[in-house]
Amino acid sequence: MDITEELDERKVKILNAVIQTYLDTGEPVGSRTISKSSDLKLSSATIRNEMSDLEELGYIIQPHTSAGRIPSDKGYRFYVNHLLEEKDAEINEIKDLMILRTEKMEKVLKQVVKVLANNTQYASIISAPAISGNKVKFVQLSAVDEQHILSVVVMEGNLIKNKMIEIDEPLDAETLLKLNMLLNTNLNGLTVHDINLTLIARMKEEAGEFEPIIENVLNTIADTIGEDEKIEVYTSGATNIFKYPELADSEKASRFLTTFEEKESIIDLITEVQSEGDATGTGIQVYIGEESPIAGMRDCSVVTATYELGEGVKGTIGIIGPKRMDYKNVMSNLKNLKRQLDHTLKQQE
Amino acid sequence: MDITEELDERKVKILNAVIQTYLDTGEPVGSRTISKSSDLKLSSATIRNEMSDLEELGYIIQPHTSAGRIPSDKGYRFYVNHLLEEKDAEINEIKDLMILRTEKMEKVLKQVVKVLANNTQYASIISAPAISGNKVKFVQLSAVDEQHILSVVVMEGNLIKNKMIEIDEPLDAETLLKLNMLLNTNLNGLTVHDINLTLIARMKEEAGEFEPIIENVLNTIADTIGEDEKIEVYTSGATNIFKYPELADSEKASRFLTTFEEKESIIDLITEVQSEGDATGTGIQVYIGEESPIAGMRDCSVVTATYELGEGVKGTIGIIGPKRMDYKNVMSNLKNLKRQLDHTLKQQE
DNA sequence: GTTAGCACTCAATAATTAAGAGTGCTAATA
DNA sequence: TATTAGCACTCTTAATTATTGAGTGCTAAC
Prior knowledge:
Two copies of one chain form a homodimer. Chain A is of the alpha+beta class. Chain A is built from twelve helices and ten strands. In chain A, a hairpin with a 2-residue loop joins β9 and β10 (313-322). In chain A, α3 (31-37) packs across α4 and α8 runs antiparallel to α9 (211-226). The radius of gyration of chain A is 27 Å and the shape is elongated.
């Protein structure tokens, strides 16, 4: 698949011209168009011969006998790997990402994904950072009223979790203080996975008569943190596909949008992405057509970037669009966003 | 618009038959169909005459000269107001709505709206309860580390809000305690609107050298609570419109889905709904076609219910579907859901 | 190796036709 | 007087048939 291997310079130029033109117009491109538009001084007949070769090599396809050519998945792949020059896009800034309060975080992610969809005009997705490896920083129980105490857990990165716990009879201030100390001494610096049975047993023992409360709190902590194991995904701009005629007929649109609404398969994609490397060496992954792991999106291309807010705290951001998407713009957008998200944590530590 | 006014019994029967049939098939219905299917023993010619009258009266419409009739908005309206019999649908239960923690709340709402979309097979929306009139129940500041204190505000109905506040220099435990007392004594039982300048001035004075912190906390509270002034809306099942051919061509679908994705106009709808009464006397509002306040949804009908979790804490739940929707099923579903949501708070108090 | 020229192919569009559902009207009927 | 049968007419939908034109592949000349 190397440039020099099977394509001479002229073929590469022609292939590039075909793809570029197709990205613009969305119509199959013919030999005459290339002959006129490109800087190669060649007649359409010559181009035709070359295009015939390129088709034989699998880079372009003829949708039917007497039509121009469109890029094949292989063609796009070549384009992405070899022909794409980076472009440094201006992109709307993201502010205030500093504090990882879940609620806040969610708003920020919604905002980011909206900006991305807006910038690229493609359907966009972002997954919330998975925090399973994250450490407990601070725990506090407070008496709210006679039947309720509130547990607040702050994780590394200032992610905050609350839970209301029902109790049978009121706790006095002293007991509460004791419990708080007990919790903080034992849990501080631990991840959810570290909270094992031995520890729980020991804490229960120390708690004495308040054992049920400790148990409740620990469950609560495990629960609330565990909740985030299932990845949250936010999306925006799904309806942009109507802007691309090749995807806009109602059958395809229906399939696409339904897949998009059911977020499960997107989560699959996201997790797959996170575990894979990237071929381009830019921190960006590109799936073209059939390469995509999601069945409902075989007519599309998917471009994703994985951002990392800290050890084990990873999320993915990506866009889904027609194969003839503006890869250049998309990739620089994602790169930028990735940089910003990556940078965010540094600022905070 | 009363039954006896302009429609005799037979006309009503025929109108009913037309609408019922149209709801089933989605095709214009002709005189012969009615003649055969209904229990009236009349020939198609007679039916034709009656239908001609019904058209003149505005209850049904002929899409073109030689087609059957379809219900007009007025026809649907008549159907909804007079012909619809209630049906008590079984509906999946909703559990665990007890605690209004924002995060939790959100998950519950997402769940509810999904269930609704699933039950009805129409696009569904639900708005989170607006809490602006809600009272402060409990405030707590905790030192998390040297640069951060965490403010936790619990509102009536156990809605919890957190905010991390940055500070320049550490606070000792005693000061924190003092501040906590100050905050709780002054704010307890107040709504956001009650926190006025006079009160703020007095609290600042009492706070002495810690005035900046109090200010920060108060702003925080106002901010965090104020955030909810803009109504959150959750949606599900938007892609169901592809199930209804009359809405599924890509232009209409695009318009609809785009409106649906931009939640702004839905919020308009929701707020409008909350301020209006309902004509049916069932706590359910029905907008048919042009009656809808949303331009992008003039081809649809909208059915909504307002639920109330307590004084001033209101939300709206609704579905959007084709005009020929199964009003009976939708309305009973909404009614049920409304009851469950209404009931929820009682359980909690 | 490149190019001009030409016959051929095939999708897309438009035009034509055919079928059928449904109406409105009239005249006959109970 | 209300109902019905019958028939001509309308208009959509689907199917069929040109028409067009972009684009190719091939051949022969440069």
